[in-house]
Amino acid sequence: MADYYYKLDSATKTDSEKVAWCSSVGPAEILRSLGFHVYFPENHSAMLGASRIATDLIPYANAVGYSPEVCSYLTSDIGAYLRKVTPLSKAYEGIKSIPKPDVLVFNTNQCRDVQDWFAFYAKEFNVPLLGVYTYRNINDITETHVKSIAQQIESLIEPLEKISGNTFNKMELKKVLSLSRQCSNLWKKVLDTASATPSPLTFFDGSIQMGPAVVLRGTQQAVDYYTLLLSELEDRIKKSEGAVEDERFRLYWDGMPIWGRLRAHSEIFATQRACVVASTYCNSWIFTDFDANDPFISMAKAYTKLFIARADEAKENYLKKMIDFFKVDGIIYHDSKTCSNNTNSRYAMPQRLEDETEIPSLVVNGDLNDLRCLSDEQFKTNIDAFIEQLEGNK
Ligand code: SF4
């Protein structure tokens, strides 16, 4: 990750190397194949959250018109920009600011907030803003959906060629896509190791380990990283080394992590000998549809099939599979105040799934980055009570 950020930092200081900003489930592969250094503002926002400086920065974005109700990734990131602060400076000596974009590319598959977020910076840096507008809230993905998204992705090439100064090379895209697919396959295998009992990793580990799957997919480094991680986890399975000592309960986390409380929350669950084995969030960077032989159609499929872009019926079918595969005793839904897109508890999904599966669930209130939306006492009380309920069930 250090290498990645240092390269971005040096690229931003030259005219010859171009930087593209991309939403986390946007068409990063196209950008890489055209020689762009790719920066993901969401990764930066997660750092703002994890370093617990996000909450204090949000009001600066509120002051320029972005409501406290909208995505706190957006508000904390814009707040950080306005205050000229970045956690990158603390993590990586010598980096003074985020890299300047030559172009910004978003995909609305996850939400509209990324579009507004990127539009702020496009105006600020006076650079082009390009986007892919994906269908949302869909059950069945049809050929029409896929073809239209593939066309949108393909139509990005012409303007991106002009900005990058490079000519599009399909062979290069195939190479990048093939590396992305390898990264994706390995990341899936890493997350799937949590189906072992005891699980060798938790959702909290996954939230950190997913960094390369987000910012480095399409590179050999990400493939090497997950190859190493997978072998370590497989070794732990052989030795029956659980991530949580003496694992008693296995839980599933739906929704965003609460970045500023990763350690605190992992400790609350570990104390209860409960392992949060899997999550919708970490699984969202598994793109097994990528196919180097059919790049545009396969990218369109992968980026449209995302859990977050689907209707409740498709989401529930997916969750039922996850419950079985990871042998889950209970589900925790995070109702994230500023991200309705990644919150699935507001339209009776927990009740429907409980009726069908008899797996108990708990809704916790909080937020990805705005810690004012979270009561630590309430969170702990609710988790303790939920574990008691699971004990009763056993
Ligand atoms: S999905 Fe949620 S957290 Fe992510 S950018 Fe959109 S609103 Fe923000």
Number of strands: 8
Low-confidence stretches: none
Which geometry do the CA atoms define? globular
Q: Main beta sheet: strand number and arrangement?
A: 4 strands, parallel
What are the secondary-structure elements, in order, as H or E?
HEHEHHHHEHEHHHHHHEHEHHHEHEH
Question: How far apart are the first and last residues' alpha carbons, in Å?
Answer: 43 Å
Total of helices? 19
| Percent of residues in helices | 40-55%
What fold name goes in the CATH topology slot of the largest domain?
Rossmann fold
Indicate the radius of gyration in whole angstroms. Answer: 21 Å
Ligand inventory reads: iron/sulfur cluster
**What is the CATH architecture assignment of the largest domain?**
3-Layer(aba) Sandwich
What key phrases describe this protein's structure?
single chain; about 400 residues; alpha/beta; Rossmann fold; 4-stranded parallel beta sheet; 19 helices; 8 strands; about 50% helix; globular; binds iron/sulfur cluster
Write the layout of secondary structure elements.
Elements: H1 2-11, E1 19-22, H2 28-33, E2 37-39, H3 41-50, H4 54-63, H5 72-83, H6 87-91, E3 103-107, H7 113-125, E4 129-132, H8 143-154, H9 157-164, H10 170-192, H11 203-209, H12 211-215, H13 220-238, E5 249-254, H14 262-271, E6 274-279, H15 280-283, H16 295-304, H17 312-325, E7 330-336, H18 349-357, E8 361-366, H19 376-393
Parallel strand pairs: 1-2, 1-3, 3-4, 5-6, 5-7, 7-8
Bound molecules: iron/sulfur cluster.
Can you describe what's shown?
The protein has about 400 residues and is α/β, with parallel strands linked by helices. The strands form two sheets. It has a four-stranded parallel sheet. It is globular. The protein has two domains: about 170 residues, Rossmann fold, CATH 3.40.50; about 220 residues, Rossmann fold (3-Layer(aba) Sandwich). It is built from 19 helices and eight strands. The model has no long low-confidence stretch (mean pLDDT about 95). Iron/sulfur cluster binds next to helix 7.
